[in-house]
């Protein structure tokens, strides 16, 4: 969870929908921004119960007593003194959790959701708010990155499957998605390593530091492996694999060679079989044969024209694909350069962690 610099409940408000009730305005100030949350007293009771169950221990400060509810609801709404006491008690309750030496209450997921607290994230410029990591939120981020690495591997497998099916567009989409996720993964892993260094400087046991350092190392190894899978071209060409002849094909070839053996002699060019009469040519005289030949050649010319149009279209598609591949190669080169730069940063971070260890 983001580090909370201050938290206040300065006012309350009476609302009539869906029925009359009082809500308290919680003002939270983080290291970057501030936000406001409105909560009812009953929601404080729920979060107190949830924190006690999750941690096995009640929060450091108790909730204000429920004695005001023993009066009529109308009196409670109109009694400013009771409302002020409750507001002050709720503020003390939240401040005690936020400032407690033990972070187990404030790092609980339910408490983060109660305050709508943002999680540690990577900024648009690629720098992560590592100072916002706590011991618990660091583990949450590490788990998210492991899930992201699995998603990238799934996209790459999908790309290969679609490529086998000659689905160029689908394979391209899956590959672009994998590259985009990989870029985010590399940046966030670097932020995670820096966050661990900050936590180590703040105080962490040697065993826990080594365990988390191993987690970062595994993520860095995953980044390296996934980068090779994304950038490197596939080593096999699935569409041009040679098919070895079967035993039946070899036997047939040998039998044909034995049974159809011709006498030895010098032959120039390929031996042509003698022309054969067909049902179409048998009733025709010389003039009819000439006309038939001309018609047949015209038909072949038409088919050739159609084939030429198809080939031109295929050529246009090939040029478009070539242009797209060239663009993707440029993107891959750029990504490779970014990976080299990020790899150097990760190496420096790993050296810092080793010095701390």
UniProtKB/TrEMBL annotation:
GO terms for molecular function: phosphatidylinositol binding. Residues 325-352 form a coiled coil. InterPro entries: PX_dom (IPR001683), PX_dom_sf (IPR036871), T_SNARE_dom (IPR000727). One of its GO terms (cellular component) is fungal-type vacuole membrane. Residues 261-282 are annotated as: Disordered. Gene3D superfamilies: 1.20.5.110, Phox-like domain. Residues 2-121 form the PX domain. Keywords: Coiled coil, Vacuole. One of its GO terms (biological process) is vacuole fusion. The keyword Coiled coil applies. Its main location: other. It is found in: Vacuole. It comes from the Eukaryota. Pfam families: PX. Residues 294-356 form the T-SNARE coiled-coil homology domain. Essential for proper morphogenesis of the vacuole. May exist as structural reinforcement on the surface of the vacuolar membrane and be required for maintenance against rupture by osmotic pressure. This is Syntaxin-8B.
């Amino acid at each position: 969870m983001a580090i909370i610099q201050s938290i206040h409940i300065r006012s309350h408000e009476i609302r009539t929908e869906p029925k009359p009730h009082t809500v308290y305005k919680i003002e939270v100030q983080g290291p970057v921004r501030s936000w406001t949350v409105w909560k009812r007293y009953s929601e404080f009771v729920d979060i107190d119960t949830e924190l006690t169950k999750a941690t096995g221990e009640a929060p450091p400060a108790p909730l204000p007593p429920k004695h005001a509810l023993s009066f009529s609801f109308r009196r409670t709404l109109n009694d400013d003194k009771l409302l002020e006491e409750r507001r002050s008690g709720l503020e003390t309750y939240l401040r005690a959790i936020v400032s407690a030496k033990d972070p187990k209450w404030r790092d609980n997921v339910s408490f983060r959701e109660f305050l709508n607290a943002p999680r540690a994230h990577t900024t648009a410029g690629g720098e992560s708010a590592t100072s916002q990591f706590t011991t618990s939120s660091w583990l949450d981020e590490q788990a998210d990155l492991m899930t992201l690495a699995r998603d990238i591997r799934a996209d790459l497998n999908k790309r290969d499957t679609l490529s086998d099916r000659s689905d160029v567009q689908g394979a391209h989409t899956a590959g672009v998605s994998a590259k985009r996720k990989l870029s985010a993964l590399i940046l966030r892993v670097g932020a995670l390593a820096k966050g661990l260094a900050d936590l180590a400087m703040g105080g962490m046991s040697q065993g826990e530091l080594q365990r988390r350092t191993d987690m970062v190392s595994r993520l860095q190894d995953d980044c390296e492996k996934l980068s090779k899978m994304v950038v490197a071209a596939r080593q096999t060409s699935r569409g041009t694999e040679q098919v070895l002849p079967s035993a039946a094909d070899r036997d047939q070839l040998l039998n044909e060679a034995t049974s159809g053996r011709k006498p030895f002699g010098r032959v120039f060019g390929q031996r042509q079989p003698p022309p054969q009469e067909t049902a179409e040519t048998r009733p025709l005289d010389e003039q009819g044969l000439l006309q038939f030949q001309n018609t047949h050649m015209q038909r072949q010319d038409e088919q050739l024209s159609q084939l030429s149009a198809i080939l031109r279209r295929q050529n246009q598609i090939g040029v478009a694909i070539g242009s797209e591949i060239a663009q993707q190669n440029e993107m891959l080169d750029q990504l490779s350069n970014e990976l080299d730069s990020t790899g150097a940063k990760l190496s420096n971070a790993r050296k810092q962690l080793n010095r701390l260890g």
